[in-house]
Amino acid sequence: MALFSFKSRAGAGMRRSTLRSMMQMDESLLSDMGLTRYDIAEALRHGAAAAGEFLDARRNARAIQWLR
User: Fold this and answer.
1) pLDDT tens per residue, range 48-61
2) Are 6 and 53 in contact (CB under 8 A)?
3) Where is 65: in which H helix or E strand?
4) Whole-angstrom Cα distance, residue 63 to residue 14?
5) pLDDT (tens digit, 9 = 90+) per residue, 2-55?
6) Backbone φ/ψ region at 34: left (φ over 0), alpha (ψ -120 to 50), beta
7) What mean pLDDT value characterizes the chain?
8) Model-level pTM?
9) Beta-strand (E) ranges in the chain?
């Protein structure tokens, strides 16, 4: 079971407060999720509607790279 699911319901985006909370997470916890603070900052720049998809794509790219 995934710790976080970044795919959102249709018409709903990731809240900025959620992204800000993620910025406060420990670096090792973010790494366990396949993310960095830079990823979160970029997601904030993309806006709420695209943030979840952006973070999901980053996690998938890192997972693929790790498996190689």
Assistant:
1) 778 989 999 999 99
2) yes
3) helix 48-67
4) 22
5) 555 555 554 455 688 889 999 999 999 999 999 999 999 999 998 777 898 999
6) left
7) 83
8) 0.72
9) none
